[in-house]
Amino acid sequence: AGSYVTLRDLIDWTSKDAVRFFLLSRKPDTEYTFDVDLAVAQNNDNPVYYVQYAHARICSVLAAWGGDVASLQDVDLSALQSPQAQALMLLLAKYPEMLTAAANDEAPHDVTFYLRELAACYHSYYDAERILVDEEALKLARLALVAATAQVLHNGLAVLGVSAPQKM
Q1: What is the pLDDT of residues 102-114, one digit of tens each?
Q2: How far is Cα 112 from Cα 17, in angstroms, rounded to an integer?
Q3: How many Å apart are CA 17 and CA 25, to the nearest integer?
Q4: Which residues in 57-92 are b (16+ Cβ under 10 Å) and which e?
Q5: How many Cβ atoms from other residues are within 10 Å of residue 123's Cβ?
Q6: What is the DSSP letter of 144?
Q7: Which of 40, 56, 72, 99 is the most buried if burial means most Cβ atoms within 10 Å?
Q8: Cβ neighbours, 10 Å, residue 161
Q9: What is the pTM of this model?
Q10: What is the DSSP annotation of 14-81?
Q11: How many helices (H) and strands (E) does the chain have?
Q12: What is the percent of the chain with per-residue pLDDT over 90, rounded to a whole number?
């Protein structure tokens, strides 16, 4: 038909965050069709919404706790024995290596894939375990884990130029 859509149009229809995340989610040598309906959807099918929601969900838990996140720095994590907690810790540990490889390979899509995997891992953890429990040592260990997850999500999104909202 000879019609075209500008990048500004995509941003107006969706958001700057959605456009950045969606475009960075593909290898530069692959064809890409931008799904506007998916980009505006506020559900788990929308990858940028899914990742941002994980960050906002953690911020909500930390706000409900009401403590100082800096106080979680030296918390004993040995109480975190569940498979979901172990999986989340292992995935967090992969962040520096993934980021270095993505930078060396000029592959920002690797960061988007990692963030989606991290968000999924966090949501599984959140669904499996209550974080704000009565047992203080366990509660602090779980809070330290989710605070670390929030930090990695925030940092990864910042690398992509995408916001990490505290509320959604």
Answers
A1: 999 999 999 999 9
A2: 12
A3: 12
A4: bbbebbeebeeeeeebeebeeebbeeebbeebbebb
A5: 16
A6: H
A7: 72
A8: 12
A9: 0.91
A10: S-HHHHHHHHHTS-TTS-----HHHHH--STTSHHHHHHHHHHHHHHHHHHH-S-GGGGTT---TT--
A11: 8, 0
A12: 81
| The dihedral sign for the CA sequence 67, 73, 76, 80 | positive
pLDDT in tens, 24-80: 998 878 877 788 888 888 888 899 999 999 999 999 999 999 999 999 999 999 999
* Nearest CA among 121, 143, 135 for reference residue 70: 143
Cα separation, 158 vs 24, whole angstroms: 13
d(CA 31, CA 50) in angstroms, rounded, equals 23
* CA–CA distance, 2 with 53 (Å, rounded to integer): 38
Give φ, ψ of 134 to 5 degrees: -75, -35
153 touches 160 (CB < 8 A): no
For residue 55, give both structure tokens.
Answer: 């960050």
Give 75-102 pLDDT, tens digit per residue.
999 999 999 999 999 999 999 999 999 9
